[in-house]
Write a structure and sequence with these properties.
Chains A, B: Catalyzes the attachment of proline to tRNA(Pro) in a two-step reaction: proline is first activated by ATP to form Pro-AMP and then transferred to the acceptor end of tRNA(Pro). The structure is a homodimer. By secondary structure, chain A is of the alpha+beta class. Chain A contains 15 helices and 28 strands. Chain A folds into 4 domains: 41 residues, no CATH class; 217 residues, Bira Bifunctional Protein, Domain 2 (BirA Bifunctional Protein, domain 2, 2-Layer Sandwich); 131 residues, Anticodon-binding domain (Rossmann fold), CATH 3.40.50; 78 residues, C-terminal domain of ProRS (Translation Initiation Factor IF3, 2-Layer Sandwich).
Chain lengths: 527, 527
């Protein structure tokens, strides 16, 4: 039984067999929330910036984001979208045009009111003579300002579809923040498209939902449930909102990407009109879809363990890190040469249709500290090379996905260098698969399908065993009836996640109202 | 004599031979400034956003920026730097710590004062109850907030150097804006490093100057003069500022990248201290360096012509665009197949150590419109394929760097498809070189080295012939003496550009003061 399995059993059976002294200062069992912060801090991913609600994303965290950006951007471009850049600032008047949208964001908008500072009594203050005539909002999302551009770009059906995307920072003034999951400023991509028909816009909405699903599962090894959000969880101004939902190791849900069919909400507010093939004026049908640095929070809470982060190879800034074990002797030069060759040969190989990313860690620090540093950062493979390895033509291989042997000792395997070179890319593919399979088993194993009543829901989420999600049948109430359901759920600290696209048809009664059910909806705690 | 040369002669001899009807609505001769705006607009690169001072960067403009980002990022990483992300907002108090720095930026800072909007008499207004205790500045540059992070990261000499970079948006509230050259919000990268010694920090400063020079020349085909800025042109807070200066076709200078040695200015303000190897506390020596979307403005004004933009192949979003000439007949399918194969085979080839970027333009528009659209956008090679080409196994090749024959007709050459496939990457390399060589000849041919007096300067810059720059000897005055020089230059609408690193030693008298000269400095008009 490997280390990961020992841990898995320990966690999921509330049965403590763990003999291992772990690298992190706190375990998931002890305090999941403190553990999450510890991973971020001890893996040098990010830190508090001193600016309220804003974080500093450090190289390891940002490197993961760059990998995510590249892989998602490739998919966004492959589906015909082009990147643009739109202004950070949005005039207040743009928001006034769409009431529901502004209601959704007004409470958390950063507002620029001045364009100059002056000295006053030894302090810097906004210059009262440099007050803006119209205050500017720092974009919380860009439907309004991009809609204004679309209205300039679109005249005829021949100008449609418009398929664009933007990588940008956005600001939502959250009162309670948590690194990567909820920060005042965050990084994301936001896609915006305009179409000549409802069908085409819906097709786009679902196509991008599928891009998010496949990106999350294939690249981040994050199994997700794709489906439509209930009415109360829709994006402000959307006709329909779809999401991918991932399950964290504490059983909570994380919304990891959303895709919205906006109908004519923004085209009527921003006047995006076109002449159709019959010569008549029509409003365009628009969509928007976004994925953010939140995904990194999901990666941590799905793949992390008590030794830190485990990064799936496809999104790891470095996939294989080589640590030379130097002893300040004449032998060191040979060890460094041997390591250098190894890295060069690895970087020449391809994996996942890209060059392998191998690093020689030459920093002036103790080899053991470096090893544990990379374990905490979650580099998929750590190679150690000492004088003895050089003499024997070997390397010592540590796989981050199976760190410990059954006896609780670190599983460092000595193999011939040539054998490792031949097996390295296969090993990376295997690690990618193993992380996904683990998470997939956990997701599927923790969706309860047996709950048929409110008491049942209470019992499931109140049980001592860590709950996951409940997939329940419901009558899809709307308006006041839905409000009542949401209110009840709120009392239990529960939320409606989504109606899974691939759930079987309803065949029973609504768990909330007792009426005939029309579909199945996921219920869970959430981030 | 090819078309480009005809144009070149025409422009530089004030001798009008040009028989060509050009694609752009205005020529460089007619109005250089209007021509610049016309290129941006007619090549669909960018547009006014409706938000004061902010532009929308459209796919072709943003695609060029993405290429620049990738190529520069590779070089920044290859020199040992890692990417991070720091907050958009900077508390006022961070600026108060460094007087010279804040003086340099206070007049143009966007200030966030509220974090919520409310409805009042039917309008949205900042909520008076949501006023920030300490206003936040939208970053104009990040020395202060990154310095604060460095002070957390650096304790010992072992923590140094810190070598980081950030790709971000910044805001400087410029009153007079011009697309790409000067906008309230712009995109850039800013590198920030901390070192244990002055020598190492200076080495870094010059290393990054060289990275900018080689990037500009090798990737953007933009010949530049690298050198140190005079004291009056230093970055606020810098001990020394270096720049690369490019010459536009109107003879004006554009500062295309800067690298600053900051000494202990920011380490003392932000308290970046380390224990040196001898156990003593020292202030770190820091640097910063930046390059922005301004580079796109430089690309336009160096490589554009009266038919629009000409994009060097290394930074072109598409290097080869294939336009099928369809006639709504049965032949069309064969033409499309033929074009599709061509693009597939091109994309399989490598150029500049990357895959060729070829595009099949399938949009529903007339072939002639598409051709001229790509000419205006400056795609390096446009291929047209009609039924006759398919029958003959040919393609029609238009090279953007030599658009016209001597007789003023479009130079479209019919060549065998197989020959074109064999020659395509060589052609792209040749175009890259040709654009650089043209610009280099113009730069070197328009630096006057003969001026030895103020009257000479006046005469050179007042001449009917379009002036370039003057490289003059000077005594490197400082303080009030320098102010006097700068004042005089200002009266002539001239500026000091930089002291070229590779200029020969001074051997005469200062053109400004008549004292013995110590070095040579470039004087010119500038953007």
């Amino acid at each position: 039984m490997d280390g990961a399995l020992v841990l898995w059993r320990a966690i999921h059976s509330n049965f403590k067999v763990d003999p291992v002294k772990h690298a992190l200062s706190v375990t998931r069992e002890q305090d999941f929330s403190a553990w999450y912060q510890a991973v971020i801090s001890e893996a040098d991913m990010a830190e508090e910036s001193g600016v309220r609600g804003c974080m500093v994303i450090r190289p390891w965290g940002y490197g993961i984001w760059e990998r995510m950006q590249k892989l998602l951007d490739d998919r966004i471009k492959a589906t015909g979208h082009e990147n643009c850049y739109f202004p950070l600032f949005i005039p207040l008047s743009y928001f006034e045009k769409e009431a529901e949208h502004v209601d959704g964001f007004a409470k958390e908008m950063a507002v620029v009111t001045h364009h100059r500072l002056i000295q006053k009594e030894g302090r810097l203050v906004p210059d009262p003579d440099a007050k803006l005539e119209e205050p500017l909002v720092v974009r919380p999302t860009s439907e309004t300002v991009i809609g204004a551009a679309f209205s300039r770009w679109v005249q005829s059906w021949r100008d449609l579809p418009v398929l664009i995307n933007q990588w940008a920072n956005v600001v939502r003034w959250e009162m309670r923040t948590r690194m990567f999951l909820r920060t005042a400023e965050f990084l994301w991509q936001e896609g915006h498209t305009a179409h000549s028909s409802v069908d085409e816009a819906m097709e786009e909405t679902l196509k991008m939902l599928e891009v998010y699903r496949s990106f999350a599962e294939e690249c981040v090894a994050l199994p997700v449930i794709a489906g439509e959000k209930p009415e109360n969880e829709r994006f402000p101004g959307a006709v329909a909102t779809y999401s991918i939902e991932a399950m964290m190791q504490d059983g909570k849900a994380l919304q990891a990407g959303t895709s919205h069919f906006l109908g004519t909400t923004f085209s009527s507010a921003q006047n995006i009109r076109f002449q159709n093939a019959e010569g008549q004026q029509e409003l365009a049908q628009t969509t928007s879809w976004g994925m953010s640095t939140r995904m990194i929070g999901g990666l941590i809470m799905v793949h992390g363990d008590d030794d830190g982060l485990r990064v799936p190879p496809r999104v790891a800034p470095y996939q294989i890190v080589v640590v030379p074990m130097l002893r300040d002797t004449d032998e060191d030069a040979a060890v460094l040469d041997y390591c250098g060759e190894l890295v060069t040969e690895l970087n020449r190989q391809d994996v996942f249709r890209e060059p392998v990313r191998a690093l020689l860690d030459r920093r002036p620090a103790k080899a053991a500290n470096k090893r544990w540093g990379w374990v905490k950062k979650g580099a998929p493979v750590v190679i150690e090379v000492g004088g003895r390895d050089v003499a024997g033509g070997n390397v010592s291989v540590i796989r981050r996905d199976r760190l410990y042997r059954e006896d609780g000792k670190l599983d460092s395997q000595v193999v011939a260098k040539a054998d490792f070179l031949g097996a390295a890319t296969g090993m990376l593919e295997e690690i990618q698969q193993a992380l996904f399979a683990d998470a997939q088993a956990r997701l599927l194993g923790n969706i309860d399908r047996s709950v048929t009543s409110l008491d049942g829901l209470k019992a499931y989420f109140g049980s001592a065993k860590k709950p996951g999600w409940a997939l329940v049948q419901w009558a899809k109430p709307t308006g006041a009836a839905l409000d009542k359901v949401v209110e009840w759920l709120k009392g239990e600290k529960l939320t409606l996640r989504n109606v899974p696209s691939d759930a079987e048809a309803a065949d029973g009664l609504c768990v909330f109202t007792g009426e005939k059910a029309v579909e199945r909806v996921l219920v869970g705690r959430s981030y």
